[in-house]
Amino acid sequence: MPQFIGFVAHDACKDDLLAWVSTHKERFRDRRIVATGTTGGLLAKAFPELSVTQLLSGPLGGDAQLATMIAEDRLALLVFLIDPMSPQPHDVDVRTLLRMAVLHNVPAAFNIATADYLVESRLFGSAYKPGRRDFSEHLGRLKA
Ligand SMILES: O=C(CO)COP(=O)(O)O
Predict the structure, then answer these.
(1) Whether 50 contacts 40, CB under 8 Å
(2) Record: fold of 4-143
């Protein structure tokens, strides 16, 4: 199953994401990128040399699609630049995406500083794949 790198940016953060990707573009040349609709459209236009798959726009289900990709073990890493100052109509989807990243132990950055740490890590681009957590005991408790 191919592993994608996921990018999402709220409107106030889209310029920041474009600038950040531009800085680290070489690292993404051989990687498959997946992004919510508007974010993906901007990335594809700015960086035609990168492989960008566009999902639905965030408010129309793009965050939920990314959350599903995490549940299906198809996302290697998530960079999601969140605007902490604006309410989002699809906040419930945003929280689902965050929860899926935490639940399934996906390396995830929600601001530029952490995104920098991720791409500068010696683990980035290596064969490193974090293990998914085992919730079988927890599920057994729920069923009992
Ligand atoms: O709303 C978003 C993330 O919650 C981003 O969606 P767009 O990339 O379609 O703007």
Answers:
(1) no
(2) Rossmann fold (3.40.50)
